[in-house]
Amino acid sequence: MNQPALKKYPVGIQTFSELRTKGYLYIDKTAYVYRMANDNSKYMFLSRPRRFGKSLLTSTLHAYFEGRKELFEGLAIERLETEWTQYPVLHFDMSLGKHMDKEALTRYLHNSLQNNEIRLGIASREAQDTNIRLTNLIMDAYAKYGRQVVVLIDEYDAPVLDVVHEDRDLPALRNVMRNFYSPLKACDPYLRYVFLTGITKFSQLSIFSELNNIDNISMDNGYAAICGITEDEMRTQMDADLDVFADKLDTTKENLLDKLKSYYDGYHFTWPSPDIYNPFSLMNAFGKGELNAYWFGSGTPTYLIEMLKKYHTPPTEIGREEVALEDFDVPIERATNYMPLLYQAGYLTIKGKDTEFGSYILDLPNKEVRLGLMSSLVPSYIAEDTRKSNRTLREMARHLSRNDMDGALQVLQVFLSTVPYTDNTDYEGHYQQVLYIIFSLMGYYVDVEVHTATGRVDVVMRTAHTLYIIEVKLNKSAAEAMQQIDLKHYDERFALCGLPVVKVGVNFDSERHTLKDWTIQ
């Protein structure tokens, strides 16, 4: 039986017209486009993580408002729209405005304005200020075409993201952007629709000046699946693709779906919400025919690591926490901890909600993010030489696959003894973080400070065959660590886990910065 012809996978392609005219797969989101364009709100903002489809959504809106009906043939919006009115569209992509100082950013905005003037056939009027030039452009477009203007701004926050953790450059760049966006409210009579996308949420005061009428749809239930791919969309619009992918991996379709869910699913931007798959990773996986960390591998933003350092956030504290909405859905400049940025950037997601008390459960979305985040923290906690650390992880994993914890700890001891000394390692918690990162990177379930009836276990790690209870000591002895496990009967807490329980007492040496001794029962 012949397989049906498959469409090409749009890896990195964010232009709607290109997807539709060159045979690329397009997951139909046009019903959302129609709803957005005909909603009561004239100004809308959507926050989603990087590479999650914001630019494609913006491009789709652009094509819709230009009345390009031919591009939407066979899609949901074809049954909804009857008029296909053409509007003049101003489209600004701020993603290229990164790593710039105040002067360079101003030049970039002028260039973006010029590109829109040329595309709409409007002569530029001399203006040194970007806000005046934008005002002139909106009014001239309105006068020339006799219709209200649509303004689309993609990645509005890109110019300030890399300096969001510092106080030196952020105010100046923020003022440039605030000045540029300021005409959007004053020009209201000339505007049909304004849409902005971004990763982070800034307050109206700091970025949008007087534009206080933006409808933030980021957590609206009705728009929960506007970006990303749901399992239902994958099972229906990519059903034939699943068959081909499963054949390539020599597995069943259901087994493939389980693996895809483990790696790329698990995002929720409101609650309740369908499970959302990362579209960038999913398209890459189907296109290349293998599972890998595509989203995280495409680049760990420097601001992420800098913010974790700024708030002194150890890896073990990231996620698995019940919080109030105001703890994570707040403007970035008012953040007092790491959580708002990690949530808005997609490294944390909503995993549940207590409606009675208005709290949310935040955690890492999936295996790709967990492994990627731990990998990015290795240079700060373990070693800058990733080649050596990756080799160590492989050797440890081979030992643990044979239930040989003693061999794994021998490998770790040798490795840590070769790592150059770093500051702030002379406390027990540092070595607890080291074990947490290492075991997480090997793909095992690992938790710290696990409560029992008589105390807290430092580290609990589970492989496919064994559950390990690990007590960590510094400058003491492994025997003392094991004694604590026995005296407090930590193993009784896990008697019904269904796996053999192995007790491990480890002792680190602060002078040598590695394992001194250990005991295993």
UniProtKB/TrEMBL annotation:
Q: Locate the transmembrane regions by residue number.
A: none
UniProt superkingdom? Bacteria
UniProt xrefs under InterPro entries: AAA-ATPase-like_dom (IPR018631), PDDEXK_9 (IPR012547)
Q: Where is the AAA-ATPase-like domain?
A: 10-208
Check the record and name the Pfam families matching this protein.
Answer: AAA-ATPase_like (PF09820), PDDEXK_9 (PF08011)
Q: What name appears for this protein in its UniProt entry?
A: AAA-ATPase
